[in-house]
TrEMBL record, chain B:
<keyword id="KW-0547">Nucleotide-binding</keyword>
<dbReference type="InterPro" id="IPR003439">
    <property type="entry name" value="ABC_transporter-like_ATP-bd"/>
</dbReference>
<keyword id="KW-0067">ATP-binding</keyword>
<dbReference type="InterPro" id="IPR003593">
    <property type="entry name" value="AAA+_ATPase"/>
</dbReference>
<comment type="similarity">
    <text>Belongs to the ABC transporter superfamily.</text>
</comment>
<keyword id="KW-0813">Transport</keyword>
<protein>
    <submittedName>
        <fullName>ABC transporter ATP-binding protein</fullName>
    </submittedName>
</protein>
<dbReference type="InterPro" id="IPR027417">
    <property type="entry name" value="P-loop_NTPase"/>
</dbReference>
<dbReference type="GO" id="GO:0005524">
    <property type="term" value="F:ATP binding"/>
</dbReference>
<dbReference type="Pfam" id="PF00005">
    <property type="entry name" value="ABC_tran"/>
</dbReference>
<feature type="region of interest" description="Disordered">
    <location>
        <begin position="257"/>
        <end position="296"/>
    </location>
</feature>
<feature type="compositionally biased region" description="Low complexity">
    <location>
        <begin position="274"/>
        <end position="283"/>
    </location>
</feature>
<feature type="domain" description="ABC transporter">
    <location>
        <begin position="23"/>
        <end position="250"/>
    </location>
</feature>
<dbReference type="InterPro" id="IPR015860">
    <property type="entry name" value="ABC_transpr_TagH-like"/>
</dbReference>
<dbReference type="InterPro" id="IPR050683">
    <property type="entry name" value="Bact_Polysacc_Export_ATP-bd"/>
</dbReference>
Length: 317, 296
């Protein structure tokens, strides 16, 4: 058969443009469809070996030529926790045995959250080369970014274990952060609540990375804006200070207003659900409720963005 | 079933310059109520492209620089989804584009092989079992443990070709960059590519090299300013594109190897059904001494 394949088939094809369009409609779903969006997520989950490997690669990469490698992550966390915990326990007149674990856990989870937000905005921009040259689900890069943060977090967890070992006696009995303030029960089995809390935070890290990643790829002003806001949020969030200090103000007093404003900060609630169990503090279910609502709303927005702009990211990077 | 169907597809690139790409224009522009020319300029890289490829097709893509060859390849690879029209790709795609990009220069060749393989849908186990074969084929030896930034362009091409040909892709998409390797390796790669295409799938290949096109493809598409100008048998299309008979430029040695007869009918003369001059699937596979290719 010497007739060229293309020419041969061309004759059999429906020639009318209407026929062709109708046939295409039946077979190829529109780029903006829920099926394609969820298909993207599923395909990325199936390729977990890929983003798992890329995430590890990123961690190793950062410390490629250093002798002790990723141990630096742990060391820098330990130095920060020791310095700030030590300093602020004196400034706020806090017993170091309970304040040091408080600051350590707060920092650990803040690092994770802020890295998800900051590196989330860069997630597609940083993977520009891969996106433009290899066909792959978009969510691969989201998973890669968040997985990398989980690995960093795991390195930082070592610091918590060390701090816990040192201050175990102080932390396991009831204590107060503020004189005549809230009485905290001390560390107990409720510490296990930190596990679902971390899972919830990771789930939120995913939507943040996806949504901010898509927006920032289109509008390149977003990363610097986000990074300056994160600095502000760091001060606003009770990490090196405690909301116990704000309790007990009369209604309408400046203290109660600040207390109210602090509660509007979404980061506060996420930090609290993770930190309170790990340092044996009183846990309020309102934090879980707020985090739950944010998770649902955030994922809804991120899925809409994925559905509508998934196919555009390759054009924008 | 391996297939690619593209219907009336267009690819438009929005070009955001620094101003357009910021929120400022979207936000302030609306507030002012006076929109001058807020529209983002658009580059129409592909316009109204329709084509349909099936298993066994080996398509060469020709056209001037900027004619839309690479964009079409990316559309066929599923990297760009058409802004208008539809594209449906079925089968496992392995693209080889610009070789510097998509590989991490800081990690070793071996790691890059693994990552590339994972991207193309393989598992880690499958890739580990292929590493020796790839090392063998690319002849890079101990170099594979060196960071990729120490590789020459040709070595990168070897690596990329080694990976895509080892994983049995169903749709192989090659951009012109693969010309950077030396002649000996080229021969080896060519045999492997032909073998691969005859075994499993489909090849779409953009190239300016006549020899390459003749070796690997049997049909061709001529792209011009984002549109398909002509598509059909390789000889017809490339001859029309170059303005001279494709076979004139081939060395006698190539002609002999491919069993082509330079004196065969010119593509425009005889009776249509028997003019396909280039290697078809049948002769590619058989490679016999049959003198009658292209003759009535």
């Amino acid at each position: 058969m010497a007739v060229p394949a293309l020419a041969r088939r061309g004759a059999d094809e429906p020639s009318g443009p209407d026929d062709a369009a109708a046939a295409a409609d039946l077979r190829a779903p529109s780029p903006r469809s829920w099926r394609r969006a969820f298909g993207d997520i599923k395909a990325a989950i199936d390729q977990r070996e890929l983003w798992g490997h890329l995430g590890w690669q990123d961690v190793k990469q950062r410390y490629r030529r250093s002798t002790i490698g990723p141990l630096w992550i742990t060391i820098s966390m330990a130095v920060t926790a020791a310095a700030l915990g030590g300093l602020y326990s004196q400034l706020f007149d806090q017993p170091i045995g309970t304040f040091m674990p408080y600051v350590t856990v707060g920092f650990m989870i803040w690092y994770f959250i802020s890295a998800c937000v900051l590196e989330g905005t860069e997630t597609f921009i940083a993977n520009e080369g891969l996106i433009r040259f290899l066909p792959a689900p978009l969510m691969i890069y989201v998973f890669r970014t968040v997985w990398r943060q989980v690995l960093f977090f795991a390195h930082n967890l070592v610091v918590y274990v060390i701090v816990l070992a040192i201050f175990f006696p102080e932390l396991t009995r009831p204590y107060q952060m503020v004189h005549n303030g809230v009485m905290h029960p001390g560390l107990g089995w409720s510490a296990l609540f930190a596990i679902p809390a971390f899972v919830l935070i990771v789930i939120n890290g995913l939507w943040v990375t996806l949504l901010f990643g898509i927006i920032a790829t289109r509008f390149r002003d977003i990363p610097p804006v986000v990074s300056s806001f994160m600095q502000l949020f760091f001060t606003m969030t009770p990490i090196i200070w405690t909301t116990d200090l704000l309790k007990g103000g009369r209604a309408g007093s400046p203290r109660s207003i600040v207390d109210f404003v602090a509660k509007l900060n979404p980061f506060y609630h996420f930090i609290e659900i993770f930190r309170a169990p790990l340092v044996g503090q009183v846990q309020s279910w309102t934090h879980w409720a707020v985090c739950g609502v944010i998770t649902v709303v955030g994922w809804a927005l991120a899925l809409i963005a994925l559905r509508n702009y998934r196919s555009r990211v390759a054009y924008w990077v | 079933m391996v297939s690619i169907d593209v219907q009336n597809a267009s690819v438009d690139f929005p070009i955001f310059d620094a101003k357009n790409r910021s929120l400022k224009k979207s936000v302030l522009g609306r507030a002012g109520g006076h929109i001058t020319d807020a529209k983002v300029p658009v580059v129409e890289a592909l316009r109204d492209v329709s084509l349909s490829l099936r298993q066994g097709d080996r398509v060469g893509l020709v056209g001037h620089n900027g004619a839309g060859k690479s964009t079409l390849l990316r559309l066929l690879a599923g990297i760009y989804e058409p802004t208008r029209g539809r594209a449906k790709i079925e089968g496992r795609v392995a693209p080889v584009f610009d070789l510097a990009v998509g590989m991490d220069p800081e990690i070793s060749g071996l790691e890059n092989i693994l990552i590339r393989g994972l991207f193309l849908g393989m598992t880690r186990k499958q890739m580990e079992s292929r590493v020796d074969e790839i090392a063998d084929f690319t002849e890079l030896g101990d170099y594979l443990t060196m960071p990729l930034r120490t590789y020459s362009t040709g070595m990168r091409v070897r690596l990329a070709l080694g990976v895509v040909t080892s994983i049995d892709p169903e749709i192989l998409i090659l951009d012109e960059g693969i010309g950077a390797v030396d002649a000996a390796f080229l021969e080896k790669a060519r045999d492997r590519l032909r073998d691969l295409v005859s075994r499993s799938g489909m090849l779409v290949f953009a190239s300016h090299s006549d020899e390459f096109l003749v070796e690997l493809c049997d049909t061709a598409i001529w792209m011009d300013t984002g549109e398909i100008k002509e598509q059909g048998s390789l000889r017809e299309v490339v001859s029309a594109y170059k303005g001279r008979d494709l076979f004139d430029s081939l060395s006698p040695e190539t002609m002999r190897r491919l069993d082509l007869d330079p004196g065969a009918s010119s593509p425009v003369t005889s009776n249509g059904s028997t003019t396909a001059p280039a290697a078809t699937d049948a002769d590619a596979a058989a490679k016999t001494e049959d003198e009658t290719v292209g003759l009535p």
